[in-house]
Amino acid sequence: MSSQDGCAVLIALEFLRGFAEDKMCGKCLPCMLGVAQMVDILEAITKGEGKEEDIRMLEAISSAAVDTARCKLGKDAAGFILESLATSREEYEEHIDEKHCAKKSCEALINYSIIPERCTLCGVCKEVCPVDAVVGEKLIPYLSDNRPYYIREKKCNRCGECLAVCEAGAIEVV
Amino acid sequence: MSELVTVKIDDREVKVPDGVAIIEAASLAGIDIPHLCYCRCLESTGACRVCLVEVEDTKGLVASCSRKVKDGMVVYTNTDKVKEARRFVIELILSNHPGDCLSCDKNGACELQKYAYELGIEKTGFSMKDPGYAIDDSNPFIERNYNLCILCGRCVRICKLKGADILDFARRGMLTKVTTPLDKSLQESGCDFCGSCLAVCPVGALLEIDRRFRGREWEMKETETTCSYCGCGCGLSFGTVEGEILRATTKDPCDYLCARGRFGWDYVASPERLTTPLIKKEGALTECSWDEALSYAAERLLKLKKEHGPESIGGFIGAGSSNEVIYLFQKFLRACVGTNNVDSSARLLGFPGLLDFCETLGGEAIASLEDVEEADVLLLVDADVTAAYPRVGVAVKKAIANGAKAIVIDPMETKVAKLVSLYLRPKVGTEEFLLAGLLKALLDEGLFDEKFAKTKCDNFTELKKSLNGFKMEGVEKKAGLPADTLKEAAKLYGEGKRPVVLFGAERVSPQSLKLIANLLLLTNRLKGSVLPCLLLSNLQGAVYMGALAEFYPGWKRATEIKDKFKKAWGASLPDAPGLSAMEMLEKAGSSILGMYIIGGDSVAQFPNATDATRALSSLDFLMVQDIFLSETAKLADVVLPGLTLPESDGNIVNMEHRVREIKKCVESPVQSDWKTIAELSKKMGCDMDYSSEKEIAKEIKLLFSIPKRVGKGSCRFMVVEPKRTGEKPDSKYPLSLVTGETSFGFYDGIRISHSKLSSLEPYGGEYVGVSPEDASAMGLEEGSRVRVASRRGKIEASVRIMDSLPRGLLFMPSHFGKRNLLTSDDIDPETKGPRCRLIAVSISKGGKK
Prior knowledge:
The complex is a heterodimer.
Chain A: H1 8-22, H2 29-46, H3 54-68, H4 72-87, H5 89-97, E1 112-114, H6 124-128, E2 134-135, E3 150-151, H7 161-165, E4 171-173
Antiparallel strand pairs in A: 1-4, 2-3
Chain B: E1 4-9, E2 12-17, H1 22-28, E3 52-55, E4 61-63, E5 74-76, H2 80-95, H3 111-118, E6 142-144, H4 154-161, E7 168-170, E8 177-179, H5 196-200, E9 206-208, E10 221-226, E11 235-241, E12 244-249, H6 259-263, E13 278-281, E14 284-287, H7 290-308, E15 313-317, H8 323-337, E16 342-344, H9 353-361, H10 369-374, E17 377-381, H11 385-388, H12 390-401, E18 405-409, E19 422-424, H13 431-444, H14 450-455, H15 460-468, H16 472-479, H17 483-494, E20 499-504, H18 510-522, E21 530-533, H19 539-544, E22 551-552, E23 556-557, H20 558-569, H21 581-586, E24 594-598, H22 602-605, H23 609-617, E25 621-626, E26 638-641, E27 650-653, E28 659-662, H24 673-683, H25 693-703, E29 735-740, H26 750-753, E30 767-770, H27 772-778, E31 785-790, E32 794-801, E33 809-813, E34 839-845
Parallel strand pairs in B: 1-5, 15-16, 15-24, 17-18, 17-20, 18-19, 20-21, 24-25, 25-26, 29-33, 30-32
Antiparallel strand pairs in B: 1-2, 3-4, 3-5, 6-9, 7-8, 10-11, 11-12, 13-14, 13-26, 22-23, 27-28, 29-34, 31-32, 31-34
Helix pairs in contact in B: 7-24, 8-24, 8-25, 9-18, 13-16, 13-17, 13-18
């Protein structure tokens, strides 16, 4: 995912994960353990499990890590999160308070749904769905009951396959 | 000495040496800056970030363990900002430390716990993480629970500095973990079990298995005493709970202990210890009371004395006893029995050759371990320092790490030989040619103190003359080393500013000893310039106490000092010179009829065990006092239980000639060895009224002082002609065999065999080391069973292929009990000790698994 089309929370999470995979040496404890804590918190937020105190916690960890990390790489990584919190605070709040991701990039916070007016009852979405979340019957003139398809939210794993195959543009992310 | 700078720490002005880290400067000012990864004796890494401080005019926080002081620096160690950062770091570490202090053995000594308490952290504010690593307790001594590891890296650094260098960080980032190469067990990784990592671990990640759930820090009674294994005499502290030893450690975690010192104490509590005296009745040793045993012994000894004279009785004492016991033992023999036939293990392990050596050079020549650490050139001759005297090994490693150049002369490529600048590998038994070659090269190159040699040493011309005919080409032919290499070594040693020579006193030949003395005299290095490495804890003490037949206490020849002792002891003393241990055994059954042996398991220690056993069996009366029913004790008519050093009070003298105190750390049902001697003496009509070891120590102090300055030294060159040492191999016995030390074994064998340490020795120590070349030539594989035979006997052993051995040389650990069935009791006429540890053997396939 490029940084342009994600929400701030996901960008921050991906950034830290990338940092941990790549540049982090694991020798200085505040950087290593602080990043681990922040990754945990950010993960929870993107899953809609964020708690009220999470933003304060992230601020505390990142600002303390800026002060205590041994090298510039660690300090910069923590600084990135601090900056993200400062510039995109509303996005974090939206994720935590409303369990909503306006940029629709946090899988757990979005739903796929079929717009009944547009559905042509072609059935392709049902065919590609790996978890059988799509319910509906293919249109057979005079035989089927001619009702639009729908997606069962609980079953849906938000893989996005249906969205990609729907020629009628009947599937939307909400 | 570096210059002093002034720094201000928390408004306290202090002068500290330039270049020290802030944390050290603070410590000098009496301020303890909290820290986890920092350790005084280790290189700083600045990893934990607990020691952060504020420095005026510096942006941000500064790690006080890695930032050096500057003149005029102003430091604050306890501002709100500092405390906040410290709290943050400690809380983060706690989030990664899923332990429960309630049942942790480190409770009360844990540094993480200490700082959490000081900062008032009840619970971490972060989410707890548990890496879920499996706990490793697959070795007998060290439990590794990396779930509790806080990655401070102290163990990694100390292992590199003092241990086997097998620990490191593996993986990276959030998955970082301390581990061994390929995450193998400690044994498989070549760990030498010094346990230094245990001493520096700030938390409960590394713990002594023996102490788990048996006593918390504050429940342990700590007794500071001295290790009783090799001649280093390292200070150690036994932690005991209810009279049981749970742990040995050092007061300062930076001080070193080897595997034997740290883990080799469990023999003390062995159920096989002797606790009641035994008397041989109808051929079988049966339990009896102390009084019965001592009365019977007194009666037998008096009878021998009356019928055959005092000269028919002899005594031998192992050098593992304290000064007080050894002193009393020789006093008993000399003043009560009336014979100078008293000897000790010192005879077998380098003395009295070493006495002449010290008298030639003067007492100041003996180096301390600090001298070794600070040396710029080291010359090691036949000294497997890391295995035999590990504390010396650490000193040598430290010197090398500090840039010292080291030269090793040893046919075996020891661990330390792999670290040195110049490794000279003489052909087996040719060290004397090499040393003489070195002398010659020093003379030829003018790398000696001519003025000193000419004016202070009266026989310099004699030495020069003796080397005139000596050809360097001869060395190449005999020892297999080219003249250029010798010249290089001579240059290295000759140009050293603070060189120290080290040698294994039990391995060098008496002639080599003289050549080394010449080397030191020639270069006028007579101050802290040589360390004779001694194998047993109190070899030096045994010699000071007079446990060599021809010497009285205080290192005095019996002939010159007898009158003084006659007066002091109030007894008439024998005129006849005493017999050495080897001579006593030779004459056992003929002129020697009774023997009293304390602690030295003669059958195991004496060369040519078959003859030694025969000799001891032929005695009219044999009394043995030991901690276990040793092979020697099994031959005795009376066996008396002995005391171990951790159960005794007293003193010993280490290889640096330093007196070290021994303190009782556990009570024993067995009475003190000195008491046994005193009671026996009383029963024989000579009262010895002592109430404690202290009184004996006082008497010793009145008679002489340790260390005795051996005067200025005679400074006489000892002219010798180099020879090939050892038994010459022939067609029947084509190989040479040397016995030596291993990391987990020990010379006397008896203590280690009753300790868990023995489980770390390959094949239980019953092996013969074979070089890879010899093994492939003879079709031997690791673990094959073979018969090793010498002119004296034949034993079976497992084959261990050892890269360190040259072709033609075999190795056997000195604690392999049966090895002495092979060794030679050929006596050196001058020192009256065994001539050499090198013998000719043959090896053949076969033998039971």
